[in-house]
Amino acid sequence: MTDQHQDPAQAPAQDEARNQQQVPTLYEWIGGTEALERLTEAFYARVRKDELLAPLFAHMDDDHPQHVATFLGEVLGGPTRYTEQHGGYPHMVSRHRGRAIKPEQRARWVELMLTAMDEVGLPEDAEFRSAFVGYIEFGSRRAMANSQPDVGPTRRTTIKKWGWGEGVPGEE
Ligand code: HEM
């Protein structure tokens, strides 16, 4: 059936589906793996020099920033490489377990991440920043909770995806 002959009752739903397909993922919007790796390199360079955070990360591998970039890429709707090649969600949780992250360390982690976002020139539109910062806030609070002594096993086994939420590009 051509567009000319489509049932008018179905047209709004089809328009909506078409519009939704045009909305890029946060992964595409940020600039893909290359942008995420720039972000995590700049971020962990700051972490290494930070008095509150450096002790927590004293033993991280050189490829830690790259692994976190891969994880974030999957969260933001990019390739599912962290799940396929790096142990997925359970591995990420296991790396936070038992570290007893303190509230002031989490807050500093978020602060340095926001600084690094500006440093590497991530998109500055309100829609992108609010969505990404929303995830950083969410993920850092989950990491802190899962790092506390005596916390039980997590129910989640797969990486949670994050999208635009209420602020989608192109809307006022
Ligand atoms: C959105 C928030 C966060 C995400 C997405 C995240 C992600 C990750 C991932 C993917 C790993 C494992 C990397 C690998 O596979 O090698 C990891 C490890 C780790 N994370 Fe996080 N993390 C977050 C928040 C935090 C916070 C708030 C802290 C502490 C303030 C923290 C401390 C650590 C530490 C200490 C490790 C282990 C480093 C090592 O290998 O020695 N994370 N994180």
From TrEMBL:
It comes from the Bacteria. Keywords: Heme, Iron, Metal-binding, Transport. Residues 1-21 are annotated as: Disordered. InterPro entries: GlbO/GLB3-like, Globin-like_sf, Globin/Proto, Hemoglobin_trunc. Pfam families: Bac_globin (PF01152). Belongs to the truncated hemoglobin family. Group II subfamily. This is Group II truncated hemoglobin.
